[in-house]
Amino acid sequence: MKKILILIAAVIITSCSDNLESLNQNIKDPSEVPGESLFTGAQKNLVDQMVDLNVNNNNTKLWSQFLQETTYTDESNYDQVGRNIPGTHWSVLYKDVLKDLDEAGKVIAATTYPLAADAELTPNKLQVIEILKVYTYSILVETFGDVPYTESLDIENLLPKYDDGLTVYKDLVARLTAAINALDTSKGSFGSADNIYGGDVASWKKFAASLKLRMGILLSDVDNAFAKSTVESAVTSGVFTSNADNANFKYLSADPNTHPVHANLVLSGRHDFVAAETIVNMMNTLNDPRRALYFLEVPGGGYVGGEIGATSNYSSHSHVSAQVEAAQAPGVILDYSEVEFLLAEASARTFNVGGSAKGHYDTAIEASIINWGGTAADAATYLAEPSVDYNLALASSTAATPWKEVIGNQKWISLFNRGFEAWTSIRLLDFPFMITPADALSGYPNKYTYPVVEQTLNGANYSAAVSAIGTDTAEQKLFWDKN
C-alpha cells in the first residue's frame, strides 16, 4: 500500500511539473511568423504612416495646407516637438516597416516550400520587398536628409552611423534598377498577402519604374545629369499609363482595418479639422471641378477654408467629402496623375521622355479629375480656364522659372490628401506659396528635425549628421532642395 501511494505521488508531482512548465508557453502566438505575414503587416504600417491624419503621427496635410485644425493649432503652426512627431515617423519607418520587411525577406529566403509552384514565387517576393524598402528609405531621406542606412538594420548596433543623404539616394536608385530588372512578370508573388497589387508582378514593375522616375526628378537641381539618365531609364522600363496602375492600398470597412482618415474623422467622433483656406481659395479662383469631390459646401452654399494657424469654427467651414473620409478609401502612395506631372516636369527640364510638358500636364489634370469621380468633359472645361491652360498660364507667370509655378500649383491640387508627397513637391518646386500661419513657431518646415531619442542616445552620430547638413532646424533645406 505504501509503495502504491509513493508511485501515485510521483505521478502527480511529474504531472504538476509538466503543467507548470507549460504555463510559460505562449500558445496563442506561433513560434515562427511566416514571411508573408510579416510583409503584409509592414506594408500596412507603411501606408498607414503615409496617409494618416493623426497629429501625433503625420502633420504633412497641415503643412501642405490642405486642412486646418479647428481648436488645437500647434501643428498647423509648425510645432514638431510637442507631440514627438519626428520620433514617431522615424520609429514607424525603421522599426515597423524596414525591420519587418528585412525579416520577411530573411524568412522567405530560408523557407522550403513543399510545392514547386510556391517555391518559384520566392525571387519575385524578395524583389517586391526590396522595392518597398527602397520606397521607405527614400521617404526617410526626403524627410530628414542624412539618415542611418548601411548600419540601420543591424540589431546588434544600437548606435548606427548616419550616411550622406545624396549617396544613400543614389544607391537606392541603383537598388531599384536591379529590382526592376530582376522581376519576372511571367510569375506571381505574394497573392492575397499583398494589399496593393494582389501579387501582380507587372504592376510592381510599373510601380518601381514610376518610383524611379519620382526619385530621379527629385535630384534634378543637385545632379542634373544623374537625374536625366535615371528619369529616361525609368520611362524606358515602363511607368504608369492609366489610373488602373495606381498604388492603392485596400482598406476594409471595419475597425481596425479602415483607412486612418476614417478613424481620425469618423470613428473618433471628433471635429478637429476643416478645409484650409490655401487650397479652397485657389480652387475657388480656378472654378476647380474637384471642389465638390474634395470638400463639402458650408450651410448656405460655397466652399470656405479655415485660416492657417488660427482656430476655425467647425460648423462654418468646409469639411472633407464623404469619399475622403470613407472607411474603404484607397491608401494612395503613388498614382498616374502624379506620374504624368513628373513627366511634365521632366519634359520642361528637356529630358527625353516623349511628348511635351503641356501634353503631360493636361493628361495629369484629366487623370486626377477622373480618378476623383469627375469626367473628361469636366477636365476639358477646366483646362480651358486661362489660369489653368498651360501656355496661357506660362505666359502670364512672373516666376523666375514659370513652368515650376504652373506645374507646381496644379500638381499640388492633384496631390490633395497625400500630405508627404505634396510637401515634397512644394519644397522642390517652391510652388504654390504657403500662407504664413497665425502663430508660426518656425519658418516653413523644409525637414523634420531629428528625433529627441537620437539626440540623447546616439549623440555622436547625431552631431556628425547635423554638422554635415547644416543645422537641425525646421528651416534647414536638404541636399536636393537647392532652388
Query: Which regions have little confidence, pLDDT < 50, spanning 5+ residues?
Result: 1-31
Count of individual beta strands: 6
Assign a percent range to the helix content.
Answer: 40-55%
Strand content: under 5%
Report the total helices: 20
SSE topology string: HHHEHHHEEHHHEHEHHEHHHHHHHH
CATH architecture: Alpha Horseshoe
The description of the largest β-sheet is: 2 strands, antiparallel
According to CATH, the fold-level topology is Serine Threonine Protein Phosphatase 5, Tetratricopeptide repeat
User: What is the approximate shape?
Assistant: globular
Q: Strand order within the widest sheet?
A: 1-5
What is the radius of gyration? Answer: 25 Å
User: What's the end-to-end separation, in Å?
Assistant: 96 Å
Pfam family, one: SusD-like_2
Keywords: Lipoprotein
Protein name: SusD/RagB family nutrient-binding outer membrane lipoprotein
Organism: Polaribacter pectinis
Question: Which keywords apply here?
Answer:
single chain; 483 residues; mainly alpha; Serine Threonine Protein Phosphatase 5, Tetratricopeptide repeat; two-stranded antiparallel ribbon; 6 strands; globular; disordered N terminus; SusD/RagB family nutrient-binding outer membrane lipoprotein; SusD-like_2; lipoprotein; TPR-like_helical_dom_sf
